[in-house]
Amino acid sequence: MSSLPVFFFVFSILLSQFPTNSIASDFCIADLSQPDGPAGYPCKDPSKVTVDDFVYSGLAVPSGNTTNFYNSAIRSINIEQFPGLNGMKISMLRADLDVSGVTPFHAHRVAELLLGVEGSVVAGFIDSNNTAYYKTLNKGEVLIIPPALLHFFYNVDSTPAVTYSFYPSDEHHVQIIDFALFQSNLPSEMLDKVTPLDHAEVQKLKKLLGGTNL
Ligand SMILES: *[C@@H]1O[C@H](CO)[C@@H](O)[C@H](O)[C@H]1NC(C)=O
Ligand SMILES: *[C@@H]1O[C@H](CO)[C@@H](O)[C@H](O)[C@H]1NC(C)=O
Prior knowledge:
Blueprint: H1 3-16, E1 72-77, E2 91-97, E3 102-107, E4 112-118, E5 120-126, E6 132-138, E7 142-145, E8 150-155, E9 161-167, E10 175-176, H2 177-182, H3 188-194, H4 199-209
Antiparallel strand pairs: 1-2, 2-9, 3-8, 3-10, 4-7, 4-9, 5-6, 5-8
Bound molecules: 2-acetamido-2-deoxy-beta-D-glucopyranose (NAG) (2 copies).
């Protein structure tokens, strides 16, 4: 036997050791019709997967209604919106900031790459030594925001701004400080104690943002 047939013989034995649906290890499109568990969503049957499972088409239109307290809207693109992201350790977000629009202070466990797409924003973060880093970000420029640090951006121009954010994780779970404090059910008298604000200020902000237990 020359070495070539031996090689193919060994190779075919090796192949036979693998499950026949080995594309299952290439991807796992989340099956959103099944419940999310500790190990994530179960995979959609690979034989039913089409190219459309790898395409998300919702970024071309504005994120939503910007007539609100922040004059801004965001659209997070996580597994629930785009099941093809499942297991890929990447996700994204589109932010639309009207004139004077703001994305208020927030944090998430993973880093963020913030890309200016339209207009100009001032974007910044504060490190754990309370040093602020901020800069005007124009179309085509990116800012890398380290994991877990508080950060913000706002429109500095007289035209609407659009940014895209990319995260090295399937889900990015943004926690917005204003909402955590004033849109939550933490009682006002506790907020009075744990923030520098007085009771009237706390109640005003809770009413404004829709918090309960005033
Ligand atoms: C946007 O939101 C504002 C405030 O809630 C509302 O008055 C307005 O009708 C909304 N616009 C659209 C197009 O839904
Ligand atoms: C931390 O902040 C203080 C006060 O602003 C500054 O003097 C110090 O150099 C900073 N330390 C580091 C490691 O950046």
